[in-house]
């Protein structure tokens, strides 16, 4: 169990005296470090005179120094061997791509250069083939869990998603998609990059899908500025690290308080499932789901058994409301002019003060509090309404977003809001929900597409969930306070419908004659898709 003290630095750009002087000062104050890892441009366009003193041995680096290769044509001549070599005493060029394992047992993956913009790739660039070969060499190892450190010169594209502010750097435009792909696959505990002349320490992100995969370690991404910059941005980073292979597994996978969703979740979903080897202790995610009650983390069967009571679901009768209910169809309080379709067990109504004129609710005819409480025949009809609405909205060039808030509500309301297909993708919708949830310290987790909410929430559990018409679902177990308008706020935000003024339904409520006219129009258009008229 060896704890290693390391230093990482950004673009040296030939300022060897500056970086090595700083290292000597740190060591005089804090003790000896094991190595210096350099990302970005190690050499500058005017390095030759200063470099000659190190190359000839007149001067020596104070600690073992490992550098990445050229990022431009001008500095290629400093790296005589593409596969890596000693450049001077104590200064080693790691090579084009590969894994360095020192005597401490740390695994350091590295990729030199910038992403190629043309084929064949110039000598100072890497291609998709380079990244694929590096990934294959590591992922094919039995029980691969990740690497300790990843060194790249470019930032990974989209690293700022779900994260703290990146300042002036727009991570949706700068950086490399191939580096993002590499980081998503290699799951480094630390990832260092440079080239943008900026210091950025991202909040740690998780490397597993909560509720779907066994917990894994987090990744910390750190971008470093250029050595000796006049803005005094941080260019040298000290850290201590124990090799993953030496760590207690429970200690390794501990999740810090400020952990965020994985910024490369799109890439992880697109990656072929067969190429992701399971950890030694990991089981295929489809075999179990997690309880979110007090026995959190305990496995329980996903076959519908052990649901608390052994009574078949269809034997349950809906409980009677304790007072007036605005949504029980037999109740005098129901605003019947908003009803647009009535089935045997469920009905469809326009939302009062809807986000759009075709924002509807799926509601059970009887009094049920949440989806988890529904009997099997009611659930079956809910599914039929979802299918009909999907077909209806798709015919109009829209996709629906459904959400339920089982918190401070008496009667189940499934809010169904259509969003134009050309406005955003299903991934954009999920990202908008997750990003806004994170801002409000709400943990919104993706759950398996083919699972139902009853597999992750017991009856009586307060929760919020989102479902897309693709079957993708996000879930939050409510443990304290929860913003009542959260679902509407996200959909109304600039990221999606761009109508923030409609987040509160009370600001959108129309007069009764206008509501009745909207309901008639919806009923007429929905008629060809309405199974209740044919059954």
Automatic annotation (TrEMBL):
Family label: Belongs to the CWF19 family.
Chain spans, region Disordered: 295-321
GO MF assignments: RNA lariat debranching enzyme activator activity
Feature: compositional bias, Basic and acidic residues: 300-310
Pfam families xref list: CwfJ_C_1 (PF04677), CwfJ_C_2 (PF04676)
InterPro entries per UniProt: Cwf19-like (IPR040194), Cwf19-like_C_dom-1 (IPR006768), Cwf19-like_C_dom-2 (IPR006767), HIT-like_sf (IPR036265)
Protein name: CWF19-like protein 1
GO biological process: mRNA splicing, via spliceosome
Organism field: Falcunculus frontatus (Eastern shriketit)
PANTHER family, per database record: CWF19, CELL CYCLE CONTROL PROTEIN, CWF19-LIKE PROTEIN 1
Cwf19-like protein C-terminal domain span: 440-531
GO cellular component: post-mRNA release spliceosomal complex
Residue span(s) of domain Cwf19-like C-terminal: 314-422
């Amino acid at each position: 169990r060896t704890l290693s003290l390391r230093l990482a630095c950004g673009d040296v750009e030939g300022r060897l005296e500056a970086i090595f002087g700083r290292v000597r000062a740190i060591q005089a104050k804090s003790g000896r470090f094991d190595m210096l890892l350099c990302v970005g441009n190690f050499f500058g366009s005017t390095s030759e005179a200063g470099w000659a003193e190190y190359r000839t041995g007149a001067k020596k680096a104070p600690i073992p120094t490992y550098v990445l290769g050229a990022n431009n044509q001008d500095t290629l001549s400093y790296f005589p061997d593409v596969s890596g070599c000693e450049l001077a005493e104590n200064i080693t060029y790691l090579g084009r791509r590969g894994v360095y394992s020192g005597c401490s047992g740390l695994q350091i993956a590295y990729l030199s250069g910038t992403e190629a913009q043309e084929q064949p790739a110039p000598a100072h660039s890497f291609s998709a083939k380079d990244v694929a070969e590096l990934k294959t060499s590591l992922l094919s190892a039995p029980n691969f869990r990740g690497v300790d450190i990843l060194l790249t010169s470019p930032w990974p594209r989209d690293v700022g998603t779900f994260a703290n502010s990146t300042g002036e750097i727009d991570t949706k435009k700068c950086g490399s998609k191939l580096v993002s792909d590499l980081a998503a696959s290699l799951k480094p505990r630390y990832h260092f990059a440079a080239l943008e002349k900026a210091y950025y320490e991202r909040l740690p992100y998780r490397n597993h899908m909560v509720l779907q995969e066994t917990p894994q370690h987090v990744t910390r991404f750190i971008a470093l500025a250029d050595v000796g910059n006049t803005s005094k941005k941080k260019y040298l980073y000290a850290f201590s690290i124990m090799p993953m292979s030496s760590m207690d597994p429970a200690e390794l996978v501990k999740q810090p308080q400020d952990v965020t969703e994985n910024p490369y979740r799109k890439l992880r979903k697109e990656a072929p499932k067969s190429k992701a080897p399971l950890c030694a202790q990991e089981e295929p995610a489809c075999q179990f789901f997690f309880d979110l009650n007090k026995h959190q983390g305990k496995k329980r069967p996903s076959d519908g058994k052990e649901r608390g009571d052994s009574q078949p679901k269809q034997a349950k009768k809906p409980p009677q409301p304790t007072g007036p209910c605005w949504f029980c169809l037999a109740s005098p309080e129901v605003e019947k002019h908003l009803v647009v379709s009535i089935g045997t067990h469920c009905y469809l109504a326009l939302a009062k003060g809807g986000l759009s004129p075709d924002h509807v609710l799926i509601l059970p005819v009887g009094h049920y509090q949440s989806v988890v409480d529904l009997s099997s025949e009611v659930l079956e009809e809910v599914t039929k309404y979802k299918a009909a609405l999907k077909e209806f909205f798709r015919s109009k060039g829209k996709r629906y977003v459904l959400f339920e808030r089982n918190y401070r509500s008496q009667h189940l309301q499934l809010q169904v809001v259509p969003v134009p297909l050309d406005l955003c993708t299903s991934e954009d919708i999920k990202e908008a929900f997750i990003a806004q949830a994170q801002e409000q310290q709400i943990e919104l987790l993706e759950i398996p597409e083919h699972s139902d909410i009853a597999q992750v929430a017991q009856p009586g559990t307060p929760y919020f969930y989102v479902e897309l018409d693709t079957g993708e679902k996000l879930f939050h177990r409510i443990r304290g306070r929860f913003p009542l308008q959260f679902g509407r706020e996200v959909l109304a935000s600039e990221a999606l419908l761009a109508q923030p003024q409609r987040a509160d339904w009370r600001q959108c409520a129309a007069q009764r004659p206008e509501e009745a006219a909207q309901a008639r129009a919806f009923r007429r258009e929905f008629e060809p898709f309405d199974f209740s008229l044919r059954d």
